[in-house]
Amino acid sequence: MTSLISAINRAWRLVMTGLCFALFGAGGLLLSLVWFNLLLVVQRDRAKRRRLARRSISLSFRFFLTVTRMTGVLDYRIDNLDALRSERGCLVVANHPTLIDYVILASVMPETDCMVKSALLRNPFVSGVIRAADYLINSEAEPLLTACKQRLAQGDTILIFPEGTRTRVGEAITLQRGAANIAVRCGSDLRMVLIHCSEKMLDKQSRWYDIPPRKPFFTVDVRERLDIHDFYDATEQEPALAARQLNRHLQHRLTSGLQTLSGINDASALS
Fold it and tell me: What is the percent of the chain where pLDDT is above 70?
């Protein structure tokens, strides 16, 4: 009987996962084709239009996550949420285990900026969202650094996944140096965020229909804010050297923090 109930539950989550992804895609197209084009007409001020677009994205993500919770597709918890919501003028660096990490974080950060790959501009489901929100495009280094410095100075929060792509299950976390370089060269503090998923789902090697035997639970642990002056002194260090050292520190903190988080969650599952 238990195995039958488990099979029915898994089949239900498979169907609901498909419906949720269809909802996500339709929502992205609707925002891009209708709402964001309407904003271009009714709001001529670029800064206000960008703010409205980002808040719309955040609201739509909250709705999507509510649906996934109600249908039993997944569940999640965010620890130290107030620190994340109130963050300003800072880089938020997070590991990237699944496809919906950005969705979870942006749902509670209604005005966050985000670093995205230029390849995503060719994706019809998200390209309109990226342009309307005026997200930073990870392309040429110097223009990107100038844009980051300007946005951080005006109080924007920039969300970065320094791995550059989703983590491969079973492999060690390896960070690219982009986030550390921006922090050093722009003089920006960093807020660390650890994301742990209890099941293998939506990772680099999985398809959307690879449904785990149990409902996935995401734990988002918002960690301390790192003061850049603890890692870089322009009078004593070269920026490139400081960026390498900071990157190693971030990689160590993310790796050790995730091991602790995974151990806590595994112990909770067994109790």
Answer: 96
In the chain, DSSP assigns E strands to: 75-79, 90-94, 113-117, 136-138, 157-160, 190-197, 217-226
Q: How far apart are CA 138 and CA 127, in angstroms?
A: 14
Copy the structure tokens of residue 91: 């880089």
User: Which residues have C-beta within 8 Å of that of residue 35, sequence separation ≥ 6?
Assistant: 56
**Residue 163 CA from chain centroid, whole number:** 11
pTM listed for this prediction: 0.92
Work out the widest C-alpha separation in the chain, in whole angstroms. 69
Q: How confident is the model at residue 265 (pLDDT cuts 50, 70, 90)?
A: low
Task: Give the whole-angstrom CA distance, residue 62 versus residue 67.
Answer: 9
Tokens 């206000």 — which residue?
48
